[in-house]
Amino acid sequence: MIITLNDTIMKEEKIQLDFAEKLDFETKNKQIPENPAVTISNLNVWASKHHILKNVELKIPKNKITVLLGPSGCGKTTLLKSLNRLTDLDKELYVSGNIFINDEEILHAKKDIPEIRRKMGLLSQKPYPLPVSIYKNMTYGFKLKGIRDKKLINYNVELRLKEVGLWEEVKDRLHSSPDKLSIGQQQRLCLARGLTVKPHIILADEPTSALDPTSSKIIEDLFKKMKNQYTIIVVTHVLRQAHRLADNVVFMSDGEIFEQGSPNKLFKNPETQELKKYLVDGN
Amino acid sequence: MRKIRKIEEKFFKIISQLATYSLVAILGYIIFVIFKNGFSSLSWEMVSEIPSGGYYYGGDGGVLNAIIGSLYIALGATLIAIIIGVPAALFINSHLMQRKRSQNTIRYILDALWGIPSIVYGAFGFTLMIYLGLSASLLAGILTVSFLITPIVIRSFDDVLSTIPRGLYEASFSLGSTRTETAVKVLLKQGFSGFITAVLLAFGRGIGDAASVLFTAGYTDNLPGNLDEPAATLPLAIFFQLGSPIPEVRQRAYAAAAILTLIILIISLSSRFVSRKYQKKALKF
Q1: What CATH number does the domain located at B46-282 have?
Q2: Over the stretch B77-114, which tens digit does the pLDDT of each residue have?
Q3: Residue A98 to chain B, least CA–CA distance (Å)
Q4: How is domain A2-282 classified at the CATH fold level?
Protein backbone atom coordinates (compact mmCIF):
# COMPACT_ATOMS: atom_id res chain seq x y z
CA MET A 1 0.00 0.00 0.00
CA ILE A 2 2.79 2.36 1.03
CA ILE A 3 4.75 1.52 -2.07
CA THR A 4 1.72 2.28 -4.24
CA LEU A 5 1.23 5.58 -2.46
CA ASN A 6 4.89 6.46 -2.92
CA ASP A 7 4.65 5.58 -6.58
CA THR A 8 1.66 7.86 -6.94
CA ILE A 9 3.48 10.71 -5.23
CA MET A 10 6.54 10.16 -7.43
CA LYS A 11 4.36 10.17 -10.51
CA GLU A 12 2.78 13.41 -9.42
CA GLU A 13 6.16 14.95 -8.82
CA LYS A 14 7.26 13.81 -12.25
CA ILE A 15 4.23 15.47 -13.81
CA GLN A 16 4.93 18.66 -11.89
CA LEU A 17 8.57 18.67 -12.96
CA ASP A 18 7.58 18.13 -16.58
CA PHE A 19 5.24 21.04 -16.19
CA ALA A 20 8.06 23.24 -14.95
CA GLU A 21 10.28 22.19 -17.82
CA LYS A 22 7.58 22.96 -20.31
CA LEU A 23 7.27 26.44 -18.99
CA ASP A 24 11.01 26.74 -19.45
CA PHE A 25 11.37 28.25 -16.08
CA GLU A 26 14.80 29.69 -15.46
CA THR A 27 17.53 29.03 -17.92
CA LYS A 28 17.24 29.67 -21.59
CA ASN A 29 19.40 26.68 -22.38
CA LYS A 30 17.52 23.81 -20.92
CA GLN A 31 20.56 21.99 -19.64
CA ILE A 32 20.79 22.11 -15.91
CA PRO A 33 24.04 23.93 -15.17
CA GLU A 34 26.68 21.98 -13.37
CA ASN A 35 27.11 23.02 -9.80
CA PRO A 36 30.36 24.90 -9.76
CA ALA A 37 33.23 24.55 -7.43
CA VAL A 38 34.56 27.71 -5.94
CA THR A 39 38.21 28.56 -6.35
CA ILE A 40 39.62 31.32 -4.23
CA SER A 41 43.04 32.56 -5.10
CA ASN A 42 45.22 34.94 -3.12
CA LEU A 43 42.27 36.65 -1.48
CA ASN A 44 43.15 39.52 0.82
CA VAL A 45 40.73 41.78 2.65
CA TRP A 46 41.67 44.85 4.63
CA ALA A 47 39.47 47.05 6.79
CA SER A 48 41.55 50.24 6.77
CA LYS A 49 44.79 48.97 8.33
CA HIS A 50 43.38 45.76 9.74
CA HIS A 51 44.26 42.77 7.58
CA ILE A 52 41.15 40.58 7.88
CA LEU A 53 41.89 37.88 5.30
CA LYS A 54 45.47 36.97 4.49
CA ASN A 55 46.37 35.31 1.20
CA VAL A 56 43.49 32.89 1.25
CA GLU A 57 43.85 30.02 -1.22
CA LEU A 58 40.93 27.65 -1.24
CA LYS A 59 39.13 25.16 -3.43
CA ILE A 60 35.59 24.35 -2.47
CA PRO A 61 34.31 21.07 -3.91
CA LYS A 62 31.03 20.71 -5.74
CA ASN A 63 27.99 19.21 -4.11
CA LYS A 64 29.63 18.91 -0.75
CA ILE A 65 29.18 20.67 2.53
CA THR A 66 32.24 22.75 3.27
CA VAL A 67 32.44 24.07 6.80
CA LEU A 68 34.49 27.16 7.54
CA LEU A 69 35.53 26.61 11.12
CA GLY A 70 37.33 28.94 13.43
CA PRO A 71 37.11 31.26 16.42
CA SER A 72 34.93 34.38 16.32
CA GLY A 73 36.54 37.25 14.48
CA CYS A 74 38.86 35.06 12.41
CA GLY A 75 37.42 36.25 9.09
CA LYS A 76 35.03 33.38 8.28
CA THR A 77 32.07 35.67 7.66
CA THR A 78 34.16 38.09 5.62
CA LEU A 79 35.31 35.19 3.46
CA LEU A 80 31.71 34.09 3.00
CA LYS A 81 30.55 37.60 2.14
CA SER A 82 33.40 38.07 -0.34
CA LEU A 83 31.85 35.22 -2.31
CA ASN A 84 28.63 37.06 -3.08
CA ARG A 85 30.18 40.50 -3.12
CA LEU A 86 28.39 41.69 0.01
CA THR A 87 31.79 43.10 0.94
CA ASP A 88 31.00 45.78 -1.65
CA LEU A 89 28.60 47.27 0.85
CA ASP A 90 31.45 48.29 3.14
CA LYS A 91 33.41 51.10 1.62
CA GLU A 92 36.19 50.71 4.17
CA LEU A 93 36.85 47.13 3.04
CA TYR A 94 39.53 46.70 0.43
CA VAL A 95 39.43 43.36 -1.35
CA SER A 96 42.09 41.90 -3.65
CA GLY A 97 42.66 38.51 -5.25
CA ASN A 98 40.40 36.33 -7.35
CA ILE A 99 37.32 34.23 -6.82
CA PHE A 100 36.23 31.87 -9.56
CA ILE A 101 32.87 30.23 -9.75
CA ASN A 102 32.61 27.77 -12.56
CA ASP A 103 35.80 29.28 -13.99
CA GLU A 104 34.15 32.65 -14.02
CA GLU A 105 35.96 35.39 -12.12
CA ILE A 106 33.44 37.24 -9.98
CA LEU A 107 35.40 39.39 -7.58
CA HIS A 108 36.50 42.11 -9.95
CA ALA A 109 33.92 41.55 -12.56
CA LYS A 110 32.12 44.73 -13.44
CA LYS A 111 29.28 42.45 -14.33
CA ASP A 112 25.78 42.42 -13.10
CA ILE A 113 26.40 42.07 -9.37
CA PRO A 114 22.77 41.17 -8.56
CA GLU A 115 23.15 38.29 -11.03
CA ILE A 116 26.31 37.10 -9.24
CA ARG A 117 24.52 37.29 -5.89
CA ARG A 118 21.54 35.41 -7.24
CA LYS A 119 23.75 32.41 -7.82
CA MET A 120 24.36 32.19 -4.10
CA GLY A 121 21.59 31.79 -1.59
CA LEU A 122 22.44 33.45 1.71
CA LEU A 123 21.30 32.26 5.10
CA SER A 124 22.37 34.54 7.90
CA GLN A 125 22.73 34.03 11.64
CA LYS A 126 19.27 35.37 12.28
CA PRO A 127 16.37 34.94 9.88
CA TYR A 128 15.46 38.14 8.08
CA PRO A 129 12.05 37.71 6.51
CA LEU A 130 11.10 40.63 4.27
CA PRO A 131 8.37 42.88 5.68
CA VAL A 132 5.68 41.26 3.55
CA SER A 133 3.60 38.09 3.74
CA ILE A 134 5.09 34.58 3.65
CA TYR A 135 3.84 34.25 0.07
CA LYS A 136 5.36 37.55 -1.00
CA ASN A 137 8.65 36.57 0.61
CA MET A 138 8.63 33.53 -1.59
CA THR A 139 7.72 35.42 -4.75
CA TYR A 140 10.16 38.31 -4.27
CA GLY A 141 12.86 36.68 -6.36
CA PHE A 142 10.45 35.86 -9.20
CA LYS A 143 9.10 39.38 -9.31
CA LEU A 144 12.65 40.73 -9.55
CA LYS A 145 13.22 38.50 -12.54
CA GLY A 146 10.03 39.75 -14.11
CA ILE A 147 8.27 36.37 -13.91
CA ARG A 148 4.54 37.01 -13.72
CA ASP A 149 3.07 33.59 -14.53
CA LYS A 150 0.96 32.90 -11.45
CA LYS A 151 0.70 29.15 -12.07
CA LEU A 152 4.43 28.82 -12.33
CA ILE A 153 5.05 31.03 -9.31
CA ASN A 154 2.56 29.15 -7.14
CA TYR A 155 4.00 25.83 -8.23
CA ASN A 156 7.47 26.94 -7.24
CA VAL A 157 6.37 28.48 -3.95
CA GLU A 158 4.91 25.13 -2.99
CA LEU A 159 7.89 23.19 -4.30
CA ARG A 160 10.46 25.23 -2.38
CA LEU A 161 8.45 25.32 0.82
CA LYS A 162 8.11 21.54 0.56
CA GLU A 163 11.83 21.27 -0.02
CA VAL A 164 12.49 22.83 3.38
CA GLY A 165 9.61 20.98 5.01
CA LEU A 166 7.59 24.11 5.71
CA TRP A 167 4.67 23.71 3.33
CA GLU A 168 2.40 21.80 5.69
CA GLU A 169 3.04 24.32 8.45
CA VAL A 170 2.30 27.44 6.43
CA LYS A 171 0.02 26.44 3.57
CA ASP A 172 -3.04 27.82 5.35
CA ARG A 173 -1.47 31.11 6.28
CA LEU A 174 0.59 32.02 3.25
CA HIS A 175 -0.78 35.54 3.28
CA SER A 176 -0.05 36.32 6.87
CA SER A 177 3.08 37.89 8.26
CA PRO A 178 6.14 35.68 8.71
CA ASP A 179 6.66 37.37 12.09
CA LYS A 180 4.15 34.94 13.55
CA LEU A 181 6.31 31.95 12.62
CA SER A 182 8.78 30.53 15.10
CA ILE A 183 12.37 31.57 14.57
CA GLY A 184 13.22 28.10 13.26
CA GLN A 185 10.36 28.27 10.76
CA GLN A 186 11.48 31.76 9.74
CA GLN A 187 14.96 30.45 9.07
CA ARG A 188 13.55 27.68 6.87
CA LEU A 189 11.41 30.26 5.10
CA CYS A 190 14.53 32.30 4.38
CA LEU A 191 16.22 29.18 3.05
CA ALA A 192 13.23 28.38 0.83
CA ARG A 193 13.13 32.00 -0.34
CA GLY A 194 16.78 31.77 -1.30
CA LEU A 195 16.08 28.60 -3.29
CA THR A 196 13.43 30.32 -5.41
CA VAL A 197 16.12 32.12 -7.41
CA LYS A 198 17.80 28.80 -8.13
CA PRO A 199 21.22 29.39 -6.63
CA HIS A 200 24.14 27.08 -7.31
CA ILE A 201 25.72 27.67 -3.96
CA ILE A 202 24.25 28.13 -0.50
CA LEU A 203 26.16 30.37 1.86
CA ALA A 204 25.18 29.88 5.48
CA ASP A 205 26.62 32.15 8.13
CA GLU A 206 26.18 30.38 11.48
CA PRO A 207 22.65 29.53 10.37
CA THR A 208 21.66 27.75 13.56
CA SER A 209 23.18 30.07 16.14
CA ALA A 210 19.82 31.65 16.97
CA LEU A 211 17.86 28.40 16.84
CA ASP A 212 16.84 25.80 19.38
CA PRO A 213 18.36 22.30 19.03
CA THR A 214 15.31 20.84 17.25
CA SER A 215 15.20 23.61 14.65
CA SER A 216 18.99 23.41 14.28
CA LYS A 217 18.73 19.72 13.53
CA ILE A 218 16.08 20.34 10.90
CA ILE A 219 18.36 22.87 9.16
CA GLU A 220 21.35 20.53 9.38
CA ASP A 221 19.34 17.62 7.98
CA LEU A 222 18.12 19.84 5.17
CA PHE A 223 21.68 20.73 4.26
CA LYS A 224 22.64 17.08 4.15
CA LYS A 225 19.67 16.36 1.91
CA MET A 226 20.29 19.36 -0.31
CA LYS A 227 23.98 18.85 -0.95
CA ASN A 228 23.22 16.68 -3.97
CA GLN A 229 21.82 19.72 -5.68
CA TYR A 230 23.84 22.56 -4.21
CA THR A 231 27.34 23.35 -3.07
CA ILE A 232 26.92 24.36 0.55
CA ILE A 233 29.32 26.52 2.54
CA VAL A 234 28.61 26.80 6.24
CA VAL A 235 30.35 29.09 8.67
CA THR A 236 30.41 27.87 12.24
CA HIS A 237 32.52 27.98 15.35
CA VAL A 238 30.86 24.92 16.84
CA LEU A 239 33.05 21.84 16.59
CA ARG A 240 30.24 19.37 16.98
CA GLN A 241 28.28 20.97 14.19
CA ALA A 242 31.29 20.87 11.92
CA HIS A 243 31.67 17.20 12.78
CA ARG A 244 28.04 16.42 12.04
CA LEU A 245 27.78 18.37 8.82
CA ALA A 246 31.05 18.66 7.04
CA ASP A 247 32.39 16.74 4.08
CA ASN A 248 35.22 19.19 3.99
CA VAL A 249 36.44 21.34 6.88
CA VAL A 250 38.45 24.52 6.46
CA PHE A 251 40.02 25.72 9.67
CA MET A 252 40.72 29.43 9.88
CA SER A 253 42.33 31.53 12.51
CA ASP A 254 43.30 35.19 12.46
CA GLY A 255 42.45 35.61 8.78
CA GLU A 256 44.47 32.64 7.58
CA ILE A 257 43.59 29.13 6.52
CA PHE A 258 45.59 26.69 8.57
CA GLU A 259 44.22 23.33 7.57
CA GLN A 260 41.59 21.76 5.43
CA GLY A 261 40.36 18.28 4.69
CA SER A 262 37.83 15.73 5.81
CA PRO A 263 36.53 16.09 9.37
CA ASN A 264 37.99 12.74 10.32
CA LYS A 265 41.43 13.79 9.23
CA LEU A 266 41.30 17.23 10.78
CA PHE A 267 39.70 16.36 14.06
CA LYS A 268 41.67 13.17 14.67
CA ASN A 269 45.04 14.24 13.38
CA PRO A 270 45.33 17.99 13.53
CA GLU A 271 48.67 19.17 12.20
CA THR A 272 48.88 22.75 13.30
CA GLN A 273 49.15 24.05 16.83
CA GLU A 274 46.27 26.46 16.22
CA LEU A 275 43.83 23.68 15.37
CA LYS A 276 45.09 21.49 18.19
CA LYS A 277 44.46 24.32 20.63
CA TYR A 278 41.04 25.04 19.13
CA LEU A 279 40.06 21.40 19.44
CA VAL A 280 41.21 21.24 23.06
CA ASP A 281 39.36 24.48 23.93
CA GLY A 282 36.30 23.38 21.99
CA ASN A 283 36.05 20.03 23.69
CA MET B 1 25.71 50.61 50.04
CA ARG B 2 22.49 48.78 49.32
CA LYS B 3 20.53 51.54 51.03
CA ILE B 4 22.16 54.22 48.86
CA ARG B 5 21.29 52.27 45.74
CA LYS B 6 17.70 51.95 46.88
CA ILE B 7 17.44 55.68 47.56
CA GLU B 8 19.08 56.39 44.21
CA GLU B 9 16.57 54.13 42.45
CA LYS B 10 13.64 55.77 44.18
CA PHE B 11 14.94 59.28 43.54
CA PHE B 12 15.33 58.74 39.80
CA LYS B 13 12.00 57.02 39.60
CA ILE B 14 10.29 60.03 41.19
CA ILE B 15 12.17 62.49 38.93
CA SER B 16 11.20 60.55 35.80
CA GLN B 17 7.61 60.19 36.92
CA LEU B 18 7.40 63.90 37.67
CA ALA B 19 8.84 64.80 34.29
CA THR B 20 6.50 62.46 32.41
CA TYR B 21 3.29 63.28 34.24
CA SER B 22 3.90 67.02 34.31
CA LEU B 23 4.38 66.95 30.56
CA VAL B 24 1.09 65.12 30.10
CA ALA B 25 -0.58 67.50 32.56
CA ILE B 26 0.70 70.59 30.72
CA LEU B 27 -0.52 69.23 27.40
CA GLY B 28 -3.87 68.40 28.96
CA TYR B 29 -4.09 71.88 30.49
CA ILE B 30 -3.31 73.59 27.17
CA ILE B 31 -6.01 71.61 25.40
CA PHE B 32 -8.40 72.26 28.30
CA VAL B 33 -7.84 76.05 28.17
CA ILE B 34 -8.24 76.16 24.39
CA PHE B 35 -11.44 74.18 24.42
CA LYS B 36 -12.88 75.85 27.54
CA ASN B 37 -12.34 79.32 26.12
CA GLY B 38 -13.17 78.41 22.58
CA PHE B 39 -16.19 76.24 23.21
CA SER B 40 -18.59 79.14 23.81
CA SER B 41 -17.72 80.68 20.43
CA LEU B 42 -17.46 77.41 18.58
CA SER B 43 -20.45 77.13 16.31
CA TRP B 44 -21.40 75.80 12.92
CA GLU B 45 -21.26 79.37 11.64
CA MET B 46 -17.65 79.58 12.79
CA VAL B 47 -16.54 76.65 10.61
CA SER B 48 -18.86 77.09 7.66
CA GLU B 49 -18.74 80.80 6.88
CA ILE B 50 -16.17 83.30 5.82
CA PRO B 51 -15.82 86.52 7.83
CA SER B 52 -18.36 89.23 7.16
CA GLY B 53 -17.30 92.86 6.87
CA GLY B 54 -17.30 93.58 10.58
CA TYR B 55 -16.13 90.16 11.74
CA TYR B 56 -13.02 91.42 13.48
CA TYR B 57 -15.15 93.90 15.42
CA GLY B 58 -17.54 91.24 16.62
CA GLY B 59 -19.65 90.95 13.43
CA ASP B 60 -21.04 87.77 11.87
CA GLY B 61 -19.15 85.07 10.02
CA GLY B 62 -16.54 82.42 10.69
CA VAL B 63 -13.03 81.33 9.84
CA LEU B 64 -13.74 79.02 6.92
CA ASN B 65 -11.29 81.08 4.84
CA ALA B 66 -8.50 80.27 7.30
CA ILE B 67 -9.50 76.61 7.66
CA ILE B 68 -9.49 76.07 3.90
CA GLY B 69 -6.33 78.17 3.43
CA SER B 70 -4.49 76.26 6.14
CA LEU B 71 -5.57 72.89 4.76
CA TYR B 72 -4.54 73.85 1.21
CA ILE B 73 -1.17 75.11 2.36
CA ALA B 74 -0.43 72.24 4.75
CA LEU B 75 -1.61 69.53 2.37
CA GLY B 76 0.16 71.05 -0.62
CA ALA B 77 3.38 71.54 1.29
CA THR B 78 3.19 68.04 2.79
CA LEU B 79 2.71 66.58 -0.68
CA ILE B 80 5.79 68.41 -1.98
CA ALA B 81 7.73 67.38 1.12
CA ILE B 82 6.78 63.72 0.56
CA ILE B 83 7.69 63.84 -3.13
CA ILE B 84 11.14 65.23 -2.30
CA GLY B 85 11.64 63.75 1.15
CA VAL B 86 10.83 60.07 0.64
CA PRO B 87 13.26 59.47 -2.25
CA ALA B 88 15.88 61.51 -0.37
CA ALA B 89 15.55 59.43 2.80
CA LEU B 90 15.61 56.20 0.78
CA PHE B 91 18.67 57.40 -1.13
CA ILE B 92 20.56 58.21 2.08
CA ASN B 93 19.86 54.70 3.35
CA SER B 94 20.38 52.70 0.19
CA HIS B 95 22.77 54.25 -2.30
CA LEU B 96 24.77 56.05 0.38
CA MET B 97 24.73 53.15 2.83
CA GLN B 98 28.47 52.52 2.59
CA ARG B 99 29.40 56.20 2.48
CA LYS B 100 29.13 56.98 6.15
CA ARG B 101 30.77 60.38 5.84
CA SER B 102 28.35 61.57 3.16
CA GLN B 103 25.44 60.22 5.20
CA ASN B 104 26.56 62.07 8.30
CA THR B 105 27.16 65.33 6.44
CA ILE B 106 23.72 65.22 4.86
CA ARG B 107 22.11 64.37 8.19
CA TYR B 108 23.96 67.24 9.86
CA ILE B 109 22.74 69.70 7.22
CA LEU B 110 19.18 68.45 7.50
CA ASP B 111 19.27 68.73 11.29
CA ALA B 112 20.47 72.31 10.92
CA LEU B 113 17.66 73.03 8.45
CA TRP B 114 15.17 71.50 10.89
CA GLY B 115 16.41 73.81 13.61
CA ILE B 116 16.17 77.05 11.62
CA PRO B 117 13.32 79.23 12.96
CA SER B 118 10.34 79.42 10.64
CA ILE B 119 10.54 83.20 10.38
CA VAL B 120 13.84 82.71 8.52
CA TYR B 121 12.03 80.43 6.05
CA GLY B 122 9.37 83.13 5.81
CA ALA B 123 12.00 85.74 4.98
CA PHE B 124 13.66 83.37 2.50
CA GLY B 125 10.30 82.60 0.89
CA PHE B 126 9.62 86.32 0.67
CA THR B 127 12.94 86.98 -1.09
CA LEU B 128 12.30 84.11 -3.47
CA MET B 129 8.82 85.42 -4.11
CA ILE B 130 10.14 88.82 -5.12
CA TYR B 131 12.81 87.20 -7.26
CA LEU B 132 10.22 85.09 -9.07
CA GLY B 133 7.81 87.98 -9.33
CA LEU B 134 5.15 86.28 -7.22
CA SER B 135 2.83 88.17 -4.93
CA ALA B 136 1.66 86.89 -1.54
CA SER B 137 -0.27 83.84 -2.62
CA LEU B 138 -1.31 80.28 -1.90
CA LEU B 139 1.52 79.03 -4.12
CA ALA B 140 4.16 81.11 -2.31
CA GLY B 141 2.77 79.88 1.03
CA ILE B 142 2.85 76.23 -0.07
CA LEU B 143 6.41 76.54 -1.37
CA THR B 144 7.70 78.27 1.77
CA VAL B 145 6.05 75.79 4.11
CA SER B 146 7.40 72.92 2.00
CA PHE B 147 10.95 74.31 2.55
CA LEU B 148 10.21 74.31 6.24
CA ILE B 149 8.86 70.77 6.48
CA THR B 150 10.87 68.82 3.88
CA PRO B 151 13.87 68.44 6.25
CA ILE B 152 11.44 67.16 8.89
CA VAL B 153 10.06 64.51 6.54
CA ILE B 154 13.54 63.41 5.43
CA ARG B 155 15.13 63.28 8.87
CA SER B 156 12.32 61.63 10.75
CA PHE B 157 11.80 59.01 8.02
CA ASP B 158 15.56 58.56 7.78
CA ASP B 159 15.74 58.03 11.54
CA VAL B 160 13.52 54.98 11.25
CA LEU B 161 15.18 53.69 8.07
CA SER B 162 18.60 53.87 9.72
CA THR B 163 17.47 51.33 12.34
CA ILE B 164 16.69 48.69 9.70
CA PRO B 165 19.12 45.83 10.33
CA ARG B 166 21.91 45.19 7.89
CA GLY B 167 20.74 41.58 7.54
CA LEU B 168 17.56 42.69 5.82
CA TYR B 169 19.54 44.57 3.19
CA GLU B 170 21.74 41.54 2.69
CA ALA B 171 18.69 39.27 2.39
CA SER B 172 17.28 41.48 -0.32
CA PHE B 173 20.59 41.89 -2.16
CA SER B 174 21.30 38.18 -2.07
CA LEU B 175 18.01 37.54 -3.85
CA GLY B 176 19.40 39.60 -6.69
CA SER B 177 17.80 42.97 -6.10
CA THR B 178 19.49 46.25 -6.86
CA ARG B 179 19.75 49.10 -4.39
CA THR B 180 16.75 50.89 -5.84
CA GLU B 181 14.65 47.72 -5.72
CA THR B 182 15.73 47.17 -2.13
CA ALA B 183 14.86 50.77 -1.24
CA VAL B 184 11.40 50.66 -2.80
CA LYS B 185 10.37 47.08 -2.04
CA VAL B 186 11.97 46.52 1.33
CA LEU B 187 13.00 49.76 3.06
CA LEU B 188 9.81 51.65 2.24
CA LYS B 189 7.68 48.81 3.61
CA GLN B 190 9.81 48.14 6.64
CA GLY B 191 9.92 51.84 7.51
CA PHE B 192 6.28 52.56 6.73
CA SER B 193 5.37 53.49 10.31
CA GLY B 194 8.29 55.94 10.27
CA PHE B 195 6.96 57.40 7.06
CA ILE B 196 3.55 58.01 8.66
CA THR B 197 5.16 59.63 11.71
CA ALA B 198 7.29 61.81 9.46
CA VAL B 199 4.28 62.97 7.47
CA LEU B 200 2.24 63.70 10.59
CA LEU B 201 5.06 65.64 12.17
CA ALA B 202 5.55 67.65 9.00
CA PHE B 203 1.83 68.27 8.51
CA GLY B 204 1.42 69.38 12.12
CA ARG B 205 4.33 71.76 11.84
CA GLY B 206 3.11 73.04 8.48
CA ILE B 207 -0.47 73.72 9.50
CA GLY B 208 0.50 75.28 12.80
CA ASP B 209 3.19 77.62 11.61
CA ALA B 210 2.43 81.32 11.41
CA ALA B 211 5.79 82.94 10.71
CA SER B 212 6.50 81.24 7.40
CA VAL B 213 3.12 82.19 5.90
CA LEU B 214 3.01 85.69 7.36
CA PHE B 215 4.64 87.37 4.35
CA THR B 216 4.22 84.65 1.79
CA ALA B 217 0.60 83.52 1.83
CA GLY B 218 -0.82 86.84 2.90
CA TYR B 219 -4.29 87.00 4.40
CA THR B 220 -7.72 87.38 2.95
CA ASP B 221 -11.30 87.05 4.05
CA ASN B 222 -12.11 85.17 0.88
CA LEU B 223 -11.57 81.55 0.03
CA PRO B 224 -8.51 81.02 -2.16
CA GLY B 225 -9.78 80.16 -5.60
CA ASN B 226 -6.45 80.02 -7.34
CA LEU B 227 -2.80 79.32 -6.61
CA ASP B 228 -1.88 82.96 -7.24
CA GLU B 229 -4.47 84.36 -4.87
CA PRO B 230 -3.61 85.10 -1.25
CA ALA B 231 -4.79 82.64 1.38
CA ALA B 232 -5.70 83.01 5.03
CA THR B 233 -4.35 80.59 7.60
CA LEU B 234 -5.55 79.52 11.02
CA PRO B 235 -2.43 80.54 12.98
CA LEU B 236 -2.70 84.05 11.55
CA ALA B 237 -6.46 84.10 12.17
CA ILE B 238 -5.72 83.26 15.80
CA PHE B 239 -3.02 85.92 15.93
CA PHE B 240 -5.20 88.68 14.50
CA GLN B 241 -8.18 87.85 16.67
CA LEU B 242 -6.20 87.45 19.85
CA GLY B 243 -4.83 90.98 19.37
CA SER B 244 -8.31 92.45 19.29
CA PRO B 245 -9.48 94.64 22.19
CA ILE B 246 -12.98 93.14 21.89
CA PRO B 247 -13.42 90.17 24.29
CA GLU B 248 -15.81 88.35 21.96
CA VAL B 249 -13.26 88.39 19.16
CA ARG B 250 -10.54 87.16 21.52
CA GLN B 251 -12.88 84.34 22.49
CA ARG B 252 -13.16 83.44 18.80
CA ALA B 253 -9.38 83.16 18.64
CA TYR B 254 -9.65 80.27 21.09
CA ALA B 255 -12.34 78.72 18.96
CA ALA B 256 -10.01 78.94 15.94
CA ALA B 257 -7.24 77.37 18.03
CA ALA B 258 -9.62 74.56 19.00
CA ILE B 259 -10.42 74.00 15.32
CA LEU B 260 -6.70 73.86 14.49
CA THR B 261 -6.12 71.36 17.29
CA LEU B 262 -9.06 69.26 16.12
CA ILE B 263 -7.79 69.22 12.52
CA ILE B 264 -4.39 67.96 13.68
CA LEU B 265 -6.05 65.38 15.91
CA ILE B 266 -8.35 64.12 13.15
CA ILE B 267 -5.54 63.92 10.57
CA SER B 268 -3.28 62.18 13.08
CA LEU B 269 -5.84 59.59 14.13
CA SER B 270 -7.12 58.88 10.63
CA SER B 271 -3.66 58.48 9.14
CA ARG B 272 -2.69 56.06 11.89
CA PHE B 273 -5.88 54.15 11.19
CA VAL B 274 -5.17 54.13 7.45
CA SER B 275 -1.56 53.05 7.98
CA ARG B 276 -2.63 50.16 10.17
CA LYS B 277 -5.18 49.06 7.57
CA TYR B 278 -2.59 49.43 4.83
CA GLN B 279 -0.03 47.34 6.66
CA LYS B 280 -2.52 44.53 7.04
CA LYS B 281 -3.49 44.77 3.39
CA ALA B 282 0.08 45.06 2.16
CA LEU B 283 0.80 41.61 3.51
CA LYS B 284 -1.54 40.11 0.97
CA PHE B 285 -1.03 39.98 -2.77
Answers
A1: 1.10.3720.10
A2: 999 999 999 999 999 999 998 888 999 999 999 999 99
A3: 20
A4: Rossmann fold (3.40.50)
